[in-house]
Amino acid sequence: KRTGSKPSTIMVPFKPTPTPKGVARILFITCIAFLLSLHQLTAFTPSSSTIRVGARRRLHHSCQSSALASSPPSASTPLTPSKTKTTTYDMIVIGGGSAGLTAAKFAATFGKSVCLVESSRVGGDCTWTGCVPSKTLLSAAKRAWNWRQMNEKYGGGSDIDDASLRKMLRGVKEEVDDTRERIYEKDDSPAALESLGIGFAQGRACFRDVQTVEVTNEVDGTSCRLNAKYGVVIATGASPRNIAVDIAGLDSVPYWTYENVWDEFFESIEQDQQKQVGQRKIIVVGGGPIGCELSQAISRLGCSVTLISRSPRLLPTEEEEASKELQRVLEEEGVTVICNHKVASVTSSNSDAGSIQVSLEDSLLDSIIGDHILVATGRVPNVQNMGLGEMGVQINSETNGIQVNDKLETPVKGIYAAGDCTGDQQFTHYAGYQGAIAARNILLPLKDPGVQSEVPSTTFTDPEVASFGLTEQAAISQYGEGEVSTSFRPLSKIDRAICEGKDSQGFIKITYQSKSKQILGATIVAPVAGELISELAVAKDGKMSFDQFATVMHSYPSYSIALQQMGADVYYDKLKKSKKLYDVLKKIGL
Which pTM value belongs to this model? Predict the structure, then answer.
């Protein structure tokens, strides 16, 4: 899952988009809806004291006994399930990942009672197995790589003895664990939810009717029922694709996924003191963002890595230039990249070279021997065992996710879905955005769209690969070859990259309409690509044409000033076409 850090709270602007003739009517309806709901709202105020005190009085109800309702329990401990007690909330959220947390926090911000249900750990993939641990690992790997490069450049040598490598890896593991716990305690823990007035129930949720959810604690088997006054947000995320059914023998050997690699990688090194870290061979299956990020990180931490992709190139949804550039970088760092090959089988091996043997389908290449295999071949929505079919909630046959309309509502009124469980683009920031939109559409008047076709994304390799909108070929297919132009600038022409010694790899490519200069998409390969892509996304959303970047001052020397310079090139070309007119106007004194 390509992501940055998990959004703590995403506020969605209240922005209905009526036609001019419908403004008066919509204002009238909004006022009526607001007045009718005044007795239900505690406050439309940003005051934290109102949220934390007034709202909490209604938010936290015990599932144990109605006698306890007047003395609400603390949310620092999960609600104790019961078979008889039903507690009513304005909204129920199923799933405590990025989408679920943001939905719950949105509701609490507007003084609504909300209960978040989670069967595992609050924080979801992002906190425990995705964004947070991966970016921490990548950061540590980058520091280790830079240290080795500096040592090699200035005569110290790049080799590190095995004892030092092991000590370094123990430190990296502690850093990963500490970062996860720090973010969990600050943003996701029951205590953090309590401070916002959010109820919490530990267990697996199953619909009993369109407004009622039964929560079963899988540890002790007890259960309670929660009733949603206005609606339910399903935000159950996704899990690793079960590729064992496609690769013969995979289930006969221990293999890693993004869920367990954060523990298994380090534990495997600790458990085997005989084989040096630098001699360990890791096979990574999958050339998407997760596979590329972890291949580079593990390689930089001292292991030998072979990356296998069934696609013709890495990051197949990106511009071809980006795929080629990233493959070049990985190979220069020592990663063996094999594209356009599918893994046929995995078997145990008694070879001294490694305990796992991977054979490729229809390939003349020899089998690949390694010590461990990491499978990073995608994720599938979590939609099972919730009683969705009985409620009439449909599953999209193409994405295997929950079917929703552009407002994120399922065919069942009052039941919404947000984030990865919908089968839409799987990005943490997009899930958080959808969670807020789903909550907003349940709790506030009118509705906003929550499905977007163009979502900025970043693969956090070094250099980063970031993109949004249409690729050049997609734009040509949509608008026609003569209607599309591109601006391309390698990092070798950006002064900041030259100063940092990063000018040998990377580029900025912007695709725009030839006549209007409206931005259609962009791809950036650079150390700060994830930061730069956001500026372009904002410009596009604000209908800012590419040539207008020439008029927006950027600081020098920064990477972002390249956007101004590229926009200026387009702006000057446009001026040149009117040169004769300008000459005449100048002669008459204008």
Answer: 0.85
